[in-house]
Design goal:
There is one protein chain. This protein is of the alpha+beta class. It has one domain (about 45-270). Helices cover about 20% and strands about 30% of the residues. The protein is built from 2 helices and 14 strands. The chain has a 5-stranded antiparallel sheet, covered by helices on one side. Strand 6 (about 165-170) and strand 7 form a beta hairpin. It starts with 19 loop residues before the first helix and ends in a 7-residue tail after the last strand. The model is unreliable at about 80-85 (pLDDT under 50).
Length: about 280
């Protein structure tokens, strides 16, 4: 019997390797898979930032409206002997005539925002606070001055390199940024022109149309709140209605917002004033 020598061709399990075409196909498939993973990450990151911005805007807007409501509902709270005299708002010289607990100005703030001012005294239980949490002295018959509070939108110069506007509160003690990200504040005043026994508004008008501030029965407030970061894919070109006024994008006069890729939301509400004095 002749024994043969095994050759390389006869070895079991022999592989010839991958061709260049197969390597290219494998590389393309790998790149496609990698691109899919990257896109999933990008989409997840964008969704996270968008959800974060939505939560930020909702929280800031709700807090701002709650604070404004608290201060507005205290407008006119007083001891009679103190309330029934003229007082001047130390912060900007605004004079409240006898019987007035609220006054306003059209388009005096950032982006055409309105200004609204209230005055009130503290209660004897020492629980009344102004817009920054300072205690308000109780009203008495000896001449205790009521506190004056002003709300508007401005850009703070402190720790604000991006120049983000915010809701500001001003008292005789100073000007304070309360909520950053509020771009606009618009106010309509419900005036009881008929002097009805129900103390209800006959009409809602701007500050420049009020005939008697002591007859303001309610206040309609609208604010526009934006995110701190740009999270949208394209610039915001929407217009927003705030208490009857329309905030247009990228304007330079009237009521407007700066545009950009910021997420925005409107908050509107109407508040009844509890301390009316004209009956």
């Amino acid at each position: 019997m002749k024994c043969g020598r095994a050759t390389l061709q006869n070895l079991p399990g022999q592989q010839k390797g991958l061709s260049v075409i197969e390597l290219l196909v494998a590389g393309v498939i790998g790149l496609i898979l990698l691109a899919g993973v990257v896109q999933i990450y990008i989409n997840s990151r964008q969704a996270y930032k968008l959800n974060e911005a939505m939560a930020e805007v909702q929280e800031n807007g709700a807090f701002a409206m709650a604070l404004i409501e608290t201060q507005l509902r205290m407008a006119g709270f007083r001891a009679d002997a103190v309330y029934n005299r003229d007082v001047t708002f130390d912060a900007d010289g605004t004079t409240f005539d006898q019987g007035q607990g609220i006054k306003g100005t059209n388009n005096g703030g950032e982006n055409g925002s309105d200004l609204v001012r209230v005055r009130f005294q503290g209660d004897k239980d020492d629980t009344t606070r102004d817009c920054v949490g300072n205690g308000v002295a109780a009203g008495d018959n000896e001449g205790t001055d009521p506190v004056k509070v002003e709300f508007t939108v401005a850009v703070s110069a402190t720790n604000n390199p991006a120049s983000i506007p915010g809701l500001h509160c001003r008292t005789a003690a100073g000007n304070y940024e309360i909520v950053r990200g509020v771009e606009n504040l618009q106010v309509l005043y419900g005036e009881d022109t008929a002097g009805s026994s129900t103390k209800s508004a006959s009409r809602y008008v701007g500050a420049n149309q009020i005939t008697d501030w002591s007859r303001v029965a309610s206040v309609r407030v609208g604010i526009l709140v934006r995110s701190s970061e740009e999270v949208l894919q394209t610039a915001d070109s929407s217009s927003y209605t705030l208490a009857g006024a329309v905030s247009v994008p990228q304007g330079s006069s009237g009521v407007y917002h700066p545009g950009g890729r910021y997420l925005r939301r409107v908050f509107n509400s109407t508040y009844q004033l509890r301390n009316l004095s004209y009956f």
